[in-house]
Amino acid sequence: MFYIQHGYGKSTKIDDVIARGEVHGVILSPGHEDAATLESTAAAYAGAGLDVLVDPQAYIYSTRPKGTLRFHSRNGVDLSKMSWAGSATSVLADISKVEELGLRLGLSAKLIAPSPYHASFGDYWMPTALQYARTAASEWHSRDVLATIAISQDALADWAVVEEWLDAATTLDVFGFYLVVSRSDTSYPPVAWNPRLLANLLRVIHTLSVVNGFEVIWGYSDIDGLLGLAAGANGMAAGWSYSLRQFSIDRYNTERGGGAQPIPRIFASEFLSAMRTTEIADILELAPTNEFESLTSAMPDSVTSVSNPDAQVRHLVGLSLLATSIADLPRPERFSAVRTGVESAMDRFSRLAKLNISVDGRYVARLRSYSEALSIFEREVAR
Q1: Helix spans in the chain (H)
Q2: Domain limits of the chain?
Q3: Beta bridge pairs of residue 117
Q4: Dist CA 189 CA 246 (whole Å)
Q5: How many CB atoms sit inside 10 A of residue 108's CB?
Q6: What is the pLDDT of residues 109-128, one digit of tens each?
Q7: Cα–Cα distance between 362 and 44 in angstroms, integer?
Q8: Which of 137, 228, 283, 359 lies in the 20 to 30 Å Cα band around 204?
Q9: Do residues 146 and 215 lie in contact, with contact meaning Cβ atoms separated by under 8 Å?
């Protein structure tokens, strides 16, 4: 299932992707729209039959310095008094704020519980996170509760520690988990995963979803989310801007300049990569006409003239179609489909190299890390 990760600058992008792609739901950000606009956004997509969730984004308040988002206060979910030493009363107050927001937005079926951010699975915030999830499950008994897991990628390094956390997490009386993983490098396309960290993340998803039967949605996962689906995730999410495709806790508490205009990129499904429109144009021009037929059929005639907003929509449309085709497969077949896709994409990049067509080397590096992570995951899960 494919979710659109909502944030600043939505314009008509969500509507355009829904019209052309395969979208299961939308994950709303109460920090990026004022109360009235967020209400109308939620009503529009719930009315269209989509699964509408709201991410409380409480994890930004457990960082040092504490993070900020512009519209949290106006939406009633300023949780800045969150503390690892908070009382049961303060936890209940925060849970009530999130429930009130859900009621105001008309989200009666499913709510995401707030949670702090974790630099590791053994940090002092972890008992607090479990307390938030348990309190939400107790208070929101008429709804399906998704507990939040907001962690650093480095928290995944030691499987023994991760497994100990899983022993506690799987005792929660919740419907599922909403997972966000902070990457240490925020460049786009993202740098390659450490295969061990990614393999352990896939094992977390598999343990929660396949072994224990929880629903798992991997937020801000973009193309990486396809591997999550292969491991058993029920949903993955991505947004139009690069910051909505890759989660980084630093972007909430670091001053950032305006930066340069983003380079237009489109998801090229047969390469499993978000490639520059100029790179795609070179492939279409320099490769034999029958070499990459599916790429040719998916792109406009003048790909270099595609605007950045159009490229963002095309990215999400292409990714949503592929994600849905994978999610529709029986779980045992998903893994094979994704592995085959990774291997085929690597082979296509090899063919480009033989044709002397130059593209960003990060694409192949990421695919190699995918391949190694899938191998580690398959080997260790089968034990």
Answers
A1: 13-20, 35-47, 88-104, 126-139, 159-169, 195-206, 225-231, 277-286, 293-298, 308-327, 331-354, 362-381
A2: 2-252, 265-381
A3: 150
A4: 9
A5: 11
A6: 899 999 999 999 988 899 99
A7: 38
A8: 137
A9: yes
